[in-house]
Each structure stands twice: as structure tokens, then as C-alpha cells.
Amino acid sequence: MSMKKTLTLAGSDTSGGAGIQADLKTFQEHSVYGMTALTSIVTMDPKNNWSHGVYPIDAAIVSKQLDTILSIGIDAMKTGMLGSVDIIELGAQKMDEYKLDKFVLDPVMVCKGEDEVLQPENTDAMRELLLPRATLTTPNLFEAGQLAQNGPIKTMDDMKEAAVKIHELGAKNVVIKGGKVFDHEKAIDLFYDGKAFTVLENEKINTTYNHGAGCTFAAATTANLANGKSVKEAVANAKEFVTAAIAHGWKMNEYVGPVMHGAYHQFGK
């Protein structure tokens, strides 16, 4: 027996709903073998309104993790929270060194519940070093605005303008996640392959139990690419997968509720 292998270069969410924990759960649901290179550890303070602490891991240790995994070989990879410019540079270097060609960039800029970009210099480095190497990038509205540098995204035309700009910066494919935040009767995402726009729609789900949704979407897309799906097919299936996960999200404590990663296969679409 052999399995397709995937890598997530991302942070660890101590609460288990997002980050590499979400990625591994999602990889398992897609029958791919997931491996992890940790860039940071994120904790939450139960005595201070669940505020986040982010503790980067030294780039030299990240490099050793990557060499371990890439010596085994992978079929696709994704990135999530990247703790420093050094780690972003390292990721780009390893992609070139090992000739990786299926790469999903989830351009994480803030923690859930936080409202400031973690490190603005990281956004600049992602724009310069990772977008040109990305098979696909999966920003939400805020992240797309930051990458495109076009200002806040409030309309479909804004989404299209940002998608074109991000594609021009080097990403081969772009999906901007409008979700339920976008002012539309349905939850919409916009996919752009450099030639045509495709609008992906689902019914809006009225819930706040969506912790880890972005990581889960990117991980599902990565697994689908590893399994041989086209980028467009990978994105469409990932949207169905994460929609089911959100629909069955659950309350963890008074602060957060994660998505249910097994919902798609347990309950269907």
C-alpha cells in the first residue's frame, strides 16, 4: 500500500481547531499522509478573553524539519502561519531546492479573534517570495486586500480586481474567500485562473463556530491536488468539505467553537 504525502508548514494551534492540527485532521479525511513542519506555537489565555500568544520557532529548527520531510518526498504542500521573514525565505528556498510544484499558500496574517496583522513585513515577504511559487493562494477578504494593496474589498468588482492583481504578482490560481462576511445572499468564493472567474456559492450558515475554517479549506485543497485533482476541482471539493465542517461546528468553550473536520464523510454535504 502507498499513500500520497502532504506537508503543512504552519503554526500549532494549542486548542486543536486550526493550524497544523486542522491540517492533519483534514489530510486524514482525504486519505493522504500528512507531515508537519512547525513554524510557531500559538496559545490562548483563558484568563484574558482567550487572547493569543504567538511563539515563533527558530528558522534553523524549521529547516531541519523540512529536510526530514522533503527527504521522504511529498506530492503537495501548504503553508499557514509563518513566524518570520527568515522562515518565509527558507520555505521559498526549500521549494526551489526540492523542485516542489504543487503549493497552496494560505496567507495567514492574523489569529482568529485578533484584528491586527501579526507582522506586516511577513506580508511583504509572502507577496515577493511565495506568491510567485504558488499553484494556488487562498486569501480571505482581508488578506486579499493586503496582498493586492487595493484597499478594503466590499463588492464583487473589488474581489475580481484583487484576484487579477494577486495573479499578476505570480500566483497561478487565486481563490478569494468571501464567506458569510461578504454582503451577498449566499456564501461566495471567487476562483480565478488567469483567464476566467468562477463564482462558488453555498447557502450561508448562521454560526460563529467556524474556528479553523480557513486552514481546513486550504488543507483540503492541498490534499485534493496530491490526489490528482485539477486546481479548479480541488477548490470546488474543498468548499463542499469545509461547508459541511462549518455546518457541524460545535461549541468548545465560551470563547470559541471549531469546525468538525469529519462532517463531510460522516454526514454528507
3D structure, described in words:
By secondary structure, the chain is of the alpha/beta class. The chain is built from 9 helices and 9 strands. The strands form 2 sheets. The protein has a 6-stranded mixed sheet. The protein has a 3-stranded antiparallel sheet with strand order 7-8-9, with helices on both faces. A hairpin with a 5-residue loop joins strand 2 and strand 3. Helix 7 runs antiparallel to helix 8. The longest helix has 17 residues. The radius of gyration is 17 Å and the shape is globular.
- Helix fraction by DSSP (H/I, runs of at least 4): 25-40%
- Helix and strand string, N-terminal first? EHEEHEHEHEHHEEEHHH
Describe the largest sheet.
6 strands, mixed
The number of strands is: 9
Distance between the termini: 29 Å
Strand order of the largest sheet: 3-2-1-4-5-6
Helical run tally: 9
Nearest-angstrom radius of gyration?
Answer: 17 Å
- pLDDT averaged over residues: 93
Unreliable runs: none
Percentage of residues in DSSP E strands: 15-25%
Structural class: alpha/beta
- Shape call: globular
Catalytic activity: pyridoxal + ATP = pyridoxal 5'-phosphate + ADP + H(+)
Protein name: pyridoxal kinase
EC number: 2.7.1.35
Keywords: ATP-binding, Kinase, Magnesium, Metal-binding, Nucleotide-binding, Transferase
Structure summarized in a few sentences:
Helix content is 39%, strand content 21%. By secondary structure, the chain is an alpha/beta fold.
